[in-house]
Design a protein that fits this description.
265 residues, 2 domains, single chain, 11 helices, mainly alpha
Length: 265
């Protein structure tokens, strides 16, 4: 089997994987935005009232992406299939309660673990975030850059995968993890990853860790995909607004407060 570690192509391959990861994040953002569109409008309504030029361009882009990635996927050597649950069987209420407890405990433990190494957000990054987040939040949140290390998977992942949840968030590959008011970066801190993490910090602040965890776990157990969980989808959609060429100024706190009031989480 080919291995780039035995090749002179190591650097290009590393660059390729970095670019692939960036593309995946863009695709996740688009997926989340499309998922929200699907929740609010039927296909018939979109076909009838949406701007046809935008609709055609979106469909063409999605088809081209599907063709490109499907062609690559067909060349991948299949891996050993993992265990799966019958999709018609819903998790028992006690299993859900146990999962909520495990995740909630994990979030608190990780917060305490990384707190001693955490530093305040730099004034430079505060300046780029202040139009969207309150000064109080920016002063409260602290950050950790792991510099070559990564947050390991939670200890309960093995049991969750055995139960069929094979689309768990890839903790070690995520740009950042928000543990209440502590943000840990697997890679170098960027404005994009900081913004995303701060959205979750606002959600934690307004919902509380117990309610946040309850909403996340219940939604994930239904969809089995973390980026369609409304808490995550909202963060992706706000990042997309933040990254627009001419970004509008908005309050993330107001946006989160509105989603809570509307019961969209």
């Amino acid at each position: 089997m080919y291995s780039y570690q035995d090749s002179e192509d190591r650097v290009p391959v590393l660059q390729m994987n970095s670019e692939l990861e960036h593309a995946q994040l863009e695709l996740l953002s688009a997926h989340c935005a499309t998922h929200q569109l699907r929740l609010h409008y039927s296909a018939d309504f979109l076909a009838r009232f949406a701007r046809r030029d935008i609709l055609h361009k979106s469909a063409e882009a999605a088809s081209a992406l599907h063709e490109f990635y499907s062609g690559i996927e067909n060349k991948i050597v299949p891996s050993e299939p993992g265990p799966c649950l019958d999709p018609s069987v819903q998790p028992a209420s006690d299993r859900t309660a146990e999962a909520i407890h495990c995740v909630c405990t994990y979030l608190r433990q990780q917060r305490e673990h990384y707190f001693p190494a955490a530093l305040p957000i730099s004034n430079q990054h505060k300046a780029s975030m202040w139009p969207y987040f309150s000064p109080t939040l920016l002063d409260q949140v602290r950050v950790v850059e792991l510099q070559g290390h990564r947050v390991p998977p939670p200890p309960f992942y093995a049991e969750a995968r055995a139960l069929g949840f094979d689309q768990l968030p890839e903790i070690t590959h995520m740009d950042s993890l928000t543990f209440l008011d502590i943000v840990v970066f697997n890679e170098t801190l960027t404005e994009r990853s900081l913004f995303h993490a701060l959205v979750h910090a606002v959600q934690f602040q307004m919902l509380g860790v117990e309610r946040y965890t309850e909403l996340f776990v219940q939604s994930f157990m239904k969809s089995k995909t973390h980026f369609t969980v409304p808490l995550e989808a909202h963060a992706f959609s706000l990042v997309s607004k933040f990254l627009r060429p001419s970004p509008e100024r908005f309050s993330v706190e107001d946006q989160v407060r509105q989603w809570i009031a509307d019961g969209r989480y």
